[in-house]
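Thread: Newbie trying to understand structure tokens

Hi all, I'm a second-year student working on a class project, and my supervisor (Dr. K.) asked me to get a predicted structure for one chain before our next meeting. I've only ever worked with sequences, so writing a 3D structure as a token string is new to me. If someone could post the tokens and maybe explain what I'm looking at, I'd be very grateful. Here's the chain:
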Amino acid sequence: MTPAAQRGAGSMRRRLSTALAVTLIFSAFAAGPARAEKADREKPINIEADRVTVDDAKQIATFIGRVVLTQGTLVIRGDRMEVRQDNQGFKQGTTWGDLAYFKQKRDGYDEYIEGWAERIEYDSRSDKMEMFDRALMKKSGDEVRGQYISYNANTEFFQVTGGGTKAAAGSDGRVYAVIQPKPKDKPDAVTPVPSKPAGGAGTTPASQPAQR
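---
Reply by user tm_fold:
Sure, no problem. This is what the structure looks like when written as tokens:
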């Protein structure tokens, strides 16, 4: 095999390995429903920060300094946040930080999905969260890391990208996952059946003569 062919084969193996890893990640996270808390979208959005600037004409508000957004169980934290609103009232937000953070409760479960990245974008219309640069997401002990993570709460679809040669400084451009073993179902306990004692109720002792 020529050197060029060897390089091509190596590149193909790396792509296939990455594709397989991402497929396993999707399977692990989709093993249990990961929908966000449905009631959150009906709750008011609260934002606090050190200062804010508002552009009414463009429907853009920029919050700076220890920013915290809450909407029901959804929490987003960062150093700076830009919130935009469209004509239908849906909001899109971009948060920057070192690292920005989000947390949201799973619908119908007493557990949360958490994520970290240098930049987090949230679209309330599509219930989609996108994380860019040094992205990390955790759920029930499982976690995935990559250059980019996209999470759609409606379709339960995750997309993870390593970034390759375009990865941020300090990253090798690969996707990493930690998948915890699922607990095994324990067999139902078998209740022992007590043996019937000799000469018990309903029996005639062998030594008792039959009455005439």
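A couple of things are worth pointing out once you decode it. The first strand starts at residue 46 and ends at 48. Residues 3-178 form a domain with the lipopolysaccharide transport protein A fold fold (CATH 2.60.450.10). Feel free to ask follow-ups in this thread.
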